[in-house]
UniProtKB/TrEMBL annotation:
One of its GO terms (cellular component) is cytosol. It comes from Rheinheimera nanhaiensis E407-8. GO terms for molecular function: GTP binding; metal ion binding. This is Probable GTP-binding protein EngB. One of its GO terms (biological process) is division septum assembly. Necessary for normal cell division and for the maintenance of normal septation. Its cofactor is Mg(2+). SUPFAM superfamilies: P-loop containing nucleoside triphosphate hydrolases. Keywords: Cell cycle, Cell division, GTP-binding, Magnesium, Metal-binding, Nucleotide-binding, Septation. The lineage of its organism: Bacteria, Pseudomonadati, Pseudomonadota, Gammaproteobacteria, Chromatiales. Residues 27-201 form the EngB-type G domain. NCBIfam families: GTPase_YsxC (TIGR03598).
Amino acid sequence: MYKSKINYQRASFLTSAPDINALPADSGIEVAFAGRSNAGKSSALNTLTRQNSLARTSKTPGRTQLINTFSLDNQRRLIDLPGYGFAKVPLAIKEKWQKSLAEYLMKRDSLKGLVVLMDIRHPLKDLDQDLVHWAVQSELPVLILLTKADKLGPGARKKTLLEVREASLAFMGDVTVHTFSSLNKQGLTELEQVLDLWFAAPDEAAGTE
Ligand SMILES: Nc1nc2c(ncn2[C@@H]2O[C@H](COP(=O)(O)OP(=O)(O)OP(=O)(O)O)[C@@H](O)[C@H]2O)c(=O)[nH]1
Ligand SMILES: [Mg+2]
């Protein structure tokens, strides 16, 4: 079994920021989880950190309105970004959020990778594609997680995975695609392997290991 290099269970809540200007200091390494409302971002963070209530999950889409940040150690952070594409949010607020999301992806020095979560039954919607494009433009590696994989049988799951992998070639960037389920932990090892790579500091001189 894969033994992750980082102890994700060590994650602890750091701050809730109303916008990207209120995030913690832009140093060290951070990895952000983004996706449509209800895609399973908070659930995936809880699965990764083996903590049932670290990130709040909800049956009501649009629950996470703040940018929640979690610390793994003094050099590494996980970021739970608010979901997008929620129909009931006014257009002006949607546009403002899209703008600040793009700005965050382009300007945040410590951001070393973006996990984009999509319900396996509704992958690659317009905003998902925009997000992956912005990340690729910013030379950020992207991990697409096709979430709630437990909702499909093995055949349909495999088929969707291959289709999304094929479609993702068009992004012309460092884009990896895996299936994931918070319910049965399928894909957890793959998630840990990708995050371990992104979190591996170029030099461990800071002595955090
Ligand atoms: N069957 C199944 N349900 C899941 C899975 N992951 C999340 N869910 C459910 O999907 C709903 C939304 O999950 P969240 O993790 O809160 O989604 P989110 O992306 O954080 O949503 P927002 O914060 O509102 O944007 C909840 O009811 C979860 O229980 C999964 O792997 N399998
Ligand atoms: Mg959430």
